[in-house]
């Protein structure tokens, strides 16, 4: 795990009894909601869920409220509708009075056939996972910079490290988002804003239901635990589980002729 000299997730005025303000971009994400629930264990939070499906967002908000997060608000926008992003993010920040933590957890898994994937499905995976998520991340990071503090957490994937043939579309989209997050994190250095990129391996969620789990698969709660630990530390890149960092340190440097033959 690598580290940076960025500030902690809470605002300078926040203390143990002050509710941290958290924005979940991708407000129905299982990993994102697990992370908010885990944050609430350590102290009160006020949460805002940003997403496109009002009914599912409302259900997620009720679940968080039962778990102790209060109040929970929702803002409607669609990752694929880029023109709506600025207004939606502005509303979320204005309604909450700013945020201490922003978690971007947007992605669409699909086009698993690689070269033979349906072109429209492949385009949608790339549009949502990179373009949509990247646009929302940019708007949130600018708002955090303007307020002068906060932590932006971006949910990436180990697939970003070296996309494989059978998962090329999703892997490439996550690679773009991962690179953008790291680059913007460097651009934000000195502004009081920290960017943390979380790279989980295979995660058991509804999105991956029916797929054959990869080695070292984890649950959404495991990613949440690792993310909350990272918020309390100084890391800027987090692997889940941590040993995947060493696995990909090897895979990253394998000759291409060997890598393409691996059963990944």
What is the radius of gyration computed over CA atoms, rounded to a whole number of angstroms? 18 Å
Sketch the topology as an H/E string, one letter per element.
EEHEHEHEHEHEEEHEHH
Might you state the CATH topology name?
A: Rossmann fold
The overall strand count is: 10
Class from secondary-structure proportions: alpha/beta
Indicate the low-confidence ranges by residue numbers.
Answer: 1-16
* Discrete helix count: 8
Name the shape in a single word.
globular
Strand neighbour order, sheet with most strands:
1-10-7-6-5-2-3-4
What is the typical, i.e. mean, pLDDT? Answer: 86
Whole-number count of domains? 1
Assign the CATH architecture. Answer: 3-Layer(aba) Sandwich
Query: Can you tell me the CATH superfamily?
Result: NAD(P)-binding Rossmann-like Domain
Strand content: 15-25%
N→C terminal distance: 23 Å
Which CATH class applies here? Alpha Beta
Helix content bin: 40-55%
Largest sheet: 8 strands, mixed
Describe what you observe in this structure:
The protein has 264 residues and is an alpha/beta fold. The chain has a single domain, classed as Rossmann fold. Helices cover 42% and strands 18% of the residues. It contains eight helices and ten strands. The strands form two sheets. The chain has an eight-stranded mixed sheet with strand order 1-10-7-6-5-2-3-4, with helices on both faces. The protein has a two-stranded parallel sheet with strand order 8-9. The protein is globular, with a radius of gyration of 18 Å.
């Amino acid at each position: 795990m690598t580290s940076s000299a960025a500030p902690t997730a809470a605002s300078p005025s926040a203390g143990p009894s002050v509710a941290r303000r958290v924005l979940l971009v991708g407000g129905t994400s299982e990993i994102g909601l697990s992370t908010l629930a885990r944050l609430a264990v350590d102290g009160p939070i006020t949460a805002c869920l940003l997403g496109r499906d009002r009914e599912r967002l409302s259900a997620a908000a009720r679940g968080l409220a039962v778990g102790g997060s209060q109040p929970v608000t929702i803002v409607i926008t669609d990752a694929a509708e880029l023109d709506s992003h600025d207004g939606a993010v502005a509303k979320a920040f204005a309604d909450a009075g700013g945020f201490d933590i922003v978690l971007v957890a947007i992605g669409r898994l699909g086009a698993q056939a690689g070269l033979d994937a349906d072109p429209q499905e492949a385009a949608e995976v790339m549009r949502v996972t990179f373009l949509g998520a990247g646009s929302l991340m940019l708007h949130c990071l600018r708002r955090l910079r303007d307020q002068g503090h906060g932590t932006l957490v971006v949910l990436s994937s180990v697939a970003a490290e070296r996309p494989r043939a059978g998962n090329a579309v999703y892997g490439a989209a996550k690679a773009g988002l991962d690179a953008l997050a790291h680059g913007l994190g460097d651009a934000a250095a000195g502004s009081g804003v920290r960017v943390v990129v979380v790279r989980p391996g295979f995660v058991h969620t509804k999105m991956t239901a029916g797929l054959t789990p990869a080695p070292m698969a984890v649950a959404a709660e495991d990613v949440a635990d690792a993310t909350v630990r990272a918020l309390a530390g100084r890391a800027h890149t987090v692997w889940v589980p941590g040993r995947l960092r060493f696995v990909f340190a090897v895979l990253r440097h394998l000759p291409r002729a060997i890598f393409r033959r691996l059963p990944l």
